[in-house]
Amino acid sequence: MSEHLPTPQTRNPWAWIPSLYFGQGIPYVVVMTLSVIMYKNLEVSNTDIALYTSWLYLPWVIKPLWSPLIELFGTKRRWVAVMQFFIGAALAMVALTIPAPKFFQLTLAVFWLMAFASASHDIAADGFYMLALKQHQQAAFVGVRSTFYRLANIGGQGGLVYLAGELQERTGSMVTAWSLVFWLLAGLFVLLSAYHALLLPRPAADQPAKADGHPVAEFFGVFAEFFKKPGIWVILGFLLLYRFPEAQLLKLATPFLLDKPELGGLGLSNKQVGIAYGTVGLTALTLGGLCGGWVISKIGLKRALWPLVLAMHVPNLAFVALALSQPGNLWLVSTALAVEQFGYGLGFTAYLMYMILVADGPHKTAHYAICTGFMALGMMLPGMWSGWLQDQLGYLNFFLWVIVATLPSFAMAALIKIPAEFGKKTDEEAEAR
């Protein structure tokens, strides 16, 4: 339909990157976080919630297995619009099945389909980002895409949960409240699909990859090609271990803020956590991501790497300081969290740009998806044991362990190889602007 309308090959990135990555973040937070809260509100047992919603993470881990299909069939632009429409339809199906007698089984089935659609959308969106922007633009906007992805997470975990509570008070029914929330999300994604079908640019490079031989052989060839990259074991080590400390810290940060002081926490209320972590922390994270992208575009990833690695990990000491002092002052806590989140935003841009470097080549969409699969695995596995480890060590010793856990990340950063000018805006590009 709109695929044939005359649309410019290029468009201001601000017209589509924020909406594209906000749309990428919402279905993930719906499947992984909102579903847990909804099932808890609807009185599903903790055992069933933990067991069945944990499986919903799997599509993001294994999405590289079908990423070559997105390379071989259709444009990335079309995949983005179609998957967003499918996600909207799935959200409507959740809204319809919540009041059903077998709502748990039915909604889980729909969430499973939504997770696969969302993972496919991620592959196409990330591939489109690399095709539609020049290298220095990719560096400059890497913080923007990360920021709007995180805004979607905050909007889902904060705004939509608040909305469900408000609707429950007004209607007297938690079932009705959650149904209305999912109807709202369904409408949002139908509109997003239409918006991107009309306004995404049409880069000349966004074409299906040409299969030189049998499609099945080509499929496995694209996948195998990734593992033939020079220094592949170092690449995989960096992808898995760069966020090794953060993967553990992120799981326990909010429980630490909420737990009572006698348990080693800070004893903050939900509202205080919303201010300190959800407002001040998010603002600092946003600024860190934007600054990280700007720094890389100015001096290149090679020169920026070690300052950004240090910015990522050294501020984890803020949690050690908080666990030692257990301050009661909200603004002191907020300042410490702002420092940690700003550093995280800075350091994560280096990780995103390195994945773009690794993925570069004729099959960059599929290869970037493989990188994100290893990124997801690197977050999932350490996060799984972090709660048990904190129970054994207590908060202070756990945060000290997180500092020790930065050593593998530093080691892998020392081993990776980056071209001297990668990510830096060239003089010709600067003059062209």
CATH architecture of the largest domain: Up-down Bundle
β-strand amount? under 5%
Structural class determined from secondary elements: mainly alpha
The succession of helices and strands, N to C, reads: HHHHHHHHHHHHHHHHHH
Q: So, the CATH homologous superfamily of the largest domain?
A: MFS general substrate transporter like domains
Q: Please summarize the sheet with the most strands.
A: none
Q: Would you tell me the overall average pLDDT?
A: 82
Q: Helical region count?
A: 18
User: Rg from C-alpha positions?
Assistant: 22 Å
User: Which descriptor suits the 3D outline?
Assistant: globular
Q: Helicity level, as a percent range? A: over 70%
CATH class of the largest domain: Mainly Alpha
Find the CATH topology of the largest domain: Growth Hormone, Chain: A
Low-confidence stretches: 1-7, 427-433
Count the domains. 2
Would you report the number of β strands?
0
Ends distance:
34 Å
List its salient traits.
Growth Hormone, Chain: A, disordered C terminus, globular, disordered N terminus, 18 helices, mainly alpha, 433 residues, 2 domains, 0% strand, single chain
Concise summary:
This protein is mainly alpha-helical and about 425 residues long.
